[in-house]
Hints:
Layout: E1 26-29, E2 32-38, E3 43-49, E4 54-58, E5 63-77, E6 80-84, E7 89-92, E8 98-114, H1 118-125
Antiparallel strand pairs: 1-2, 2-3, 3-8, 4-8, 5-6, 5-7, 5-8
Amino acid sequence: xxYFETPTEEPSEPGRFFxxxxxxxxxxxxxxxxxxxxxxxxxxxFVRYEPHVEAPLHAHVEEQIFIALEGEFEMELGGEVRTMxxxxxxxxxxxxxxxxxxxxxxxxxxxxxxxPRQGLLDRLED
Length: 126
């Protein structure tokens, strides 16, 4: 099987383009705004932090990939703490406790969830 294989089945749905700034903005807490793009089996969330804002320690069933794009973050992942800078990422399996705190300049990062994060889907319906 080739990475660039020729399709052998019909698509389950059409592809979609989007503009990040046009995605719905969800304020999770003061200074923490998410803009999710939702597919059937995956979600990507574009996350903006104001300076020193913290996403508190939590865990969830969905697998997550965190990627820092702008600014610095202090990230606690399974009890280990690291400074995350642009280009740094973390793989967060189901139920691993984690938190993120933005640095003095704030920050911008991407979260990818599989399956789509139910807590965020619930907020989209509000």
